[in-house]
């Protein structure tokens, strides 16, 4: 099987590295000095599950150079999906399968606006990892896991084949009864902590310590939950409470990746998180005042970050 991992950041670098380390045919799309280091010295992964260095079959910035992939794993940010999907359109074959692992609630929908539905799965992942320096991925915590499935939740042959490949590479994975519910459960958590983290610019324990901010965070989560339910996702109060059990268990100093992007002046997933909730609320006739406040306060910084990155 020919596997292409597009985006060798914390997510794509870890999972792509594991697949390559298992002896699978893995090509990688990366950029800049990170790409050069991978080409010259291989990809180094420092992990709580064991360190390794691997040389992919190919590392390039040009998708036209890679063999027609059977499986494409997207390790990009959710806001990059439209441009990357348009790029991938030129190289996918009849049976190529695309697996998105981004945070966000509508990545599948964004992909199928550009690519044929038959080529696209839905998915997400759990991991805390990042590029420590060019050519090196640091997996700092959390048992890495990929959750994925068909949009109709059928246990298709191709889904089971990918399950076997991930097993072979030692990557924990799960095909749930409802991939949509799993995506929204993670989205409920990540959207709740990311925007308010970017706005306050402090770790999650500092937000928890403030009665006012903690209530604001809960109110934000309630809005997200209501939007999901209005879209037909079977979210319940139990899921809301589970999110806050996770939030309350996070160690001191914990920040979300989108929060860090905002604080570092980088383009972030704000539009795909709080911005998405605001827009969906408008479509559905539901008020989202807390998410709108967070979004509108952060939007000028987001606009500046995007303009400066062009």
Automatic annotation (TrEMBL):
GO biological process, one term: pantothenate biosynthetic process
Keyword Metal-binding appears in the UniProt entry: no
Membrane spanning residue stretches: none
Pathway: Cofactor biosynthesis; (R)-pantothenate biosynthesis; (R)-pantoate from 3-methyl-2-oxobutanoate: step 2/2
Ketopantoate reductase N-terminal domain boundaries: 3-152
Pfam families found in the cross-reference section: ApbA, ApbA_C
Annotated EC: 1.1.1.169
Family annotation (InterPro entries): 6-PGluconate_DH-like_C_sf, 6PGD_dom2, ApbA, KPA_reductase, KPR-Related, KPR_N, NAD(P)-bd_dom_sf
Keywords: NADP, Oxidoreductase, Pantothenate biosynthesis
Residue ranges of domain Ketopantoate reductase C-terminal in the record: 179-302
GO molecular function, one term: 2-dehydropantoate 2-reductase activity
Record field: catalytic activity: (R)-pantoate + NADP(+) = 2-dehydropantoate + NADPH + H(+)
Highest taxon in the source lineage: Bacteria
SUPFAM superfamilies xref list: 6-phosphogluconate dehydrogenase C-terminal domain-like (SSF48179), NAD(P)-binding Rossmann-fold domains (SSF51735)
GO cellular component entries: cytoplasm
Protein family according to the UniProt entry: Belongs to the ketopantoate reductase family.
Function: Catalyzes the NADPH-dependent reduction of ketopantoate into pantoic acid.
Identification of the protein by name: 2-dehydropantoate 2-reductase
């Amino acid at each position: 099987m020919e596997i292409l991992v597009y985006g060798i950041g914390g997510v794509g670098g870890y999972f792509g590295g594991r697949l390559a380390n298992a002896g699978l045919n893995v090509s990688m799309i990366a950029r800049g000095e990170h790409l050069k280091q991978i080409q010259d010295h291989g990809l180094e992964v420092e992990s709580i599950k064991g360190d390794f260095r691997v040389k992919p079959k190919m590392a390039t910035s040009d998708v036209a150079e890679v063999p027609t992939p059977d499986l494409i794993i997207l390790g990009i940010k959710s806001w990059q999906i439209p441009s990357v999907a348009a790029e991938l359109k030129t190289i996918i074959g009849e049976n190529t399968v695309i697996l998105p692992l981004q945070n966000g609630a509508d990545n599948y929908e964004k992909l199928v606006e550009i690519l044929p539905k038959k080529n696209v799965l839905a998915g997400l992942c759990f991991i805390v990892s990042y590029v420590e320096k060019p050519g090196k991925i640091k997996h700092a915590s959390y048992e890495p896991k990929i959750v994925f499935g068909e949009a109709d939740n059928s246990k298709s042959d191709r889904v089971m084949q990918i399950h076997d490949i991930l097993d072979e590479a030692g990557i924990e994975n799960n095909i749930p009864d409802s991939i949509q519910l799993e995506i929204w459960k993670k989205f409920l958590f990540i959207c709740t902590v990311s925007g308010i983290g970017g706005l306050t610019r402090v770790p999650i324990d500092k937000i928890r310590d403030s009665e006012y901010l903690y209530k604001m965070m809960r109110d934000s989560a309630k809005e997200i939950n209501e939007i999901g339910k209005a879209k037909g996702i079977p979210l319940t109060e139990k899921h809301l409470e589970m999110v806050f059990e996770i939030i309350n268990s996070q160690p001191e100093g914990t920040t979300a990746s989108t929060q860090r992007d905002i604080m570092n002046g980088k383009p972030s997933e704000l539009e795909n998180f709080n911005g998405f909730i605001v827009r969906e609320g408008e479509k559905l006739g539901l008020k989202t005042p807390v998410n709108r406040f967070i979004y509108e306060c952060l939007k000028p910084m987001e606009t500046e970050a995007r303009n400066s990155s062009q």
